[in-house]
Protein 1
Amino acid sequence: MERGGGRHERGQGSLEYSGIVLLAAILVGAVVYATGWGHPIRESVESSICEIVSGGSGNCGFPDTALTPEERATSGDYVALGDSYSSGAGADDYLEGTNDDDATKEAINDFNGWLWPGDPHNNICRRSANAYSASVYNSFDFEGDYHFGACSGGVVRDYYEDNTSDNEDEGPQRDHITDDTSLITMGMGGNDFGFGSVMKSCVLGGSCATEEHTEEVDADIDAEIDTLAQLYRDLESDAPPGARILIVGYPQMFPDPEDITNGSDSFIGEDEQAWLNERGVHANWAIQEAIRRSGTNVEFVDVSDALSGHEVGTEDPWINDLDFGIDGGEWTNPTSRNSFHPNADGHAAISLIVQQHVRSGP
């Protein structure tokens, strides 16, 4: 699960690349029309076009159409990117060095360095061995390796820059992508939409399901659509030709009102649950709209029903309710980061949907 190599520089945006391919296609058409494919000049033209498209690398940049969607996805390395819903926060069994919140120790060291000697480590990306991406990787015979770059608290900026939440040893998530990458999954956007604050308002602020709050939250979501669209363009530009890019949405957290028979065993009231479900629908719509605007070939994976029958407040939940406890040494915060995140069973359910999409294609 080592980090991927440094990001390769391609020097061509997706629009520029498309223009070159179009120019090459016109050139081929002209030659074919004038000479026919049997003419010896064909090989020379093909070679010239490959040089143009690949920048001299010899990789013509056209995916092998003889491969099935699964074969394309598994022909190289798998790179898993995103936020806490992709890192596996809430699913336990965290990888070493990714659940160390020593901020309290660090503060005490600054005051009196002898009490906790050594160098406290701060990294709460919370990458779980139970995350859906780990299950996806283990369910196929990938020809390459698994590179896990998703991080709790992840925002779009973390794709381009060193981790903006001050997690140590976390460079830009795009650095995990190399010329050997054949599959990328990413779940990103929830933190950019401000869902952490939205959940807090529903827990602490009484009723959050007001018309004014709805307009505010939906506007915040809509404001991120173009940013996500550019992210998807950059993802496609950074990935090698033929790699598949799957954008994983967010699951519905609470049961539908008509499915609540004996009341919901949750800290969140039923009216707020229905309101939060609606905001989740809007968030998933915004992600799909961003894909449409991006003009890319990235694929959306709809996992909204992954937890159906096992939402927050049900008898056998696959997602954590508001949880209390100390995580990774953060003694000053009694609220667990597991709260409102899928547990190991939830990630297993999400993994099954992603696996099916890997097999079937867009």
Protein 2
Amino acid sequence: MATRHRIPTIFNLSMVDVLCCALGCVILLWLFNLKEAKQRAEAAGQTTSLLAQARQQLQDTDQQLRTASANLEKTDKEKEEIVLRAAALEKERGDLRGNLASARSRLSDLDKALAELRVQYESAADRLAKKTKEQTDLAKEMAAARQKMTDLEVLVREKEARVKTMIQSGDEMAERLRDLDARLKQSRAQADLVPGLRDKLAVAESAQSALQKEITDRKKDLAGAGTNLRAMEDTNRRLEREIGALRDEKRTLSDQVQRARIDAENRFAGIALTGKRVVFLIDMSGSMELIDENTPAPEKWTAVRQTLAKVMRSLPDLEKFQVILFANQATYLLGNQNGWFDFDPVTSTGKVAEALAAVKPRGNTDMYSAFEAAFRFRPAGLDTIYVFSDGLPNIGAGLSPEAARTMKETDRAEILSKHIRRMLLTQWNRQGAGQPRVRINTIGFFYESPDVGAFLWALARENDGSFVGMSKP
């Protein structure tokens, strides 16, 4: 009998349980892996976001590094510029110290010269007083001499009348003598014929002798009168010569005193008053009525007007002039911005003073436009500029609009001051062929900041001029 093999049973209940357990395990593992995959996916998403953020941060960091590097390079350049600027400022400081020492020495010399001029002026004044007294005494003597001359002239006229009378009398006596001579000759002729006539002849001869004697005496008196007349004429001429000599001496002394006054007046506090064609630059900004922001100075603008009038009157060679005011912009006090005014010693100073009295100071200080306007007259023969100011420029060319808005006033003033000095040196007042430099004199009024004095002094020194600071009254 053949052996029959039994087909084994694969799926039975136990196997089903095993399979179910295995399937459950598989499902559990799948679920666990799915959860883990989701977590990994979320973690991967977060990692991607963090990576993007990290990349953005890395880019920002790179940009910041590049900016920092550029800033570092700029800072290095600025540092080098600051070092160079510090060196230049140190050099300029040394130059300013030297210039200050020179200015002090020059000021000392000017003070000595001024003292000598004052001594000379006082001496001239004393001499003038003495000469005035001498002139008064001389006037009295001249009055007495004139009275004496009048009396002498009356006496001379009386003598002349007497002389004329004596001459007429002498002529009459001579005529009578000639008649007597004729009659005597006739009587002598008749005496020879008539003896009685001899006594009459003797009487006639006696009368003739007496008449001859009277004529001789009259001639002597006439000669004496002529001598007295000549003596009086000589006295008259001598008195006239003495009066003429005294008048000449008076004129000489007056000329000397006038020259001394002119020499004293032709300097204004150390400034040599020169110039034939002159531009006066007058600062009319609001500070010209202030000492500082909180202290008014009503006499300041008056002092400016008086000083301008004195300088104009004292310029001995002034022929043509122009007056330019500057504040927010440059304006012309008397107009005629394209030409000169002829200087009239009688009327010009009063006209300028009257026009300036009507001006009210206001606004900022644009000194650039003032110099630009003044140097337009250089081709027309401008030789001297007088600047009347109390401060530094605070607006005008030389600053960008942004810098003008954001910078402090002291920084703006420093930049604008240097810009004006540079323009004067390189363009406006550069010496060319056949065109000499324009002399710039500066006069400062009632300022508190030493920077103002330093700027005005440098402005004058660099342009062949002089500077004087007017102190508060």
Protein 3
Amino acid sequence: MSNRRVESFLLRLVVHDSNVPSADAWHGRIQHISSGGERQFEHMQDLLDFIGQQLVQGPQLLIAYDDQPSAE
């Protein structure tokens, strides 16, 4: 049985109207829903890097949260 988790991101894209496709035809912001972390990006690689960072950090954040003493 494999472990899996579901991660949610909110992606906002600003697309500039243009008849000529270019590298700066769009930009945006991405937010990781569970951590609240976000980043503005202008390049696809920046978007992918952010997602990768959040996926690597995810299990560590969950473990740290689970290790907190209960409020009894």
